[in-house]
Write a structure and sequence with these properties.
- This protein is mostly helical.
- The chain has a single domain, classed as Orthogonal Bundle (Non-ribosomal Peptide Synthetase Peptidyl Carrier Protein, Chain A).
- It has three helices and no strands.
- Helix 1 packs antiparallel against helix 2 and helix 1 crosses helix 3.
- The chain is globular.
Length: 88
């Protein structure tokens, strides 16, 4: 769980949730961390900017998107997938 992408995402999520990064675990959901729908939008923009990627607009609807936001680990895995797609 110590890879750079995940650590950067934890930092972004922690900043949005006004928490210390040590309080954000891979199993944490955005809801657990107190991030509401507006916070989700801000988090998505911050992640897009940090990694120069585009997250699907329907990411908040897991049934309609391959981008899973169910927890921190899922977000990290999805971002890694988008980065790989961009590089591929």
């Amino acid at each position: 769980m110590s890879d750079d992408v995940t650590q950067k995402i934890i930092g972004i999520i922690a900043e949005q949730a006004v928490l210390d990064p040590s309080e954000v675990t891979p199993e944490s959901t955005l809801e657990d961390l107190g991030i509401d729908s507006l916070g989700l939008v801000e988090t998505v923009f911050a992640i897009e900017e940090a990694f120069d990627i585009s997250i699907p607009f329907n990411a908040n609807d897991p049934a309609a998107s391959e981008f899973d936001i169910s927890n921190v680990q899922a977000i990290s895995d999805a971002v890694k997938g988008l980065i790989a797609e961009k590089q591929g």
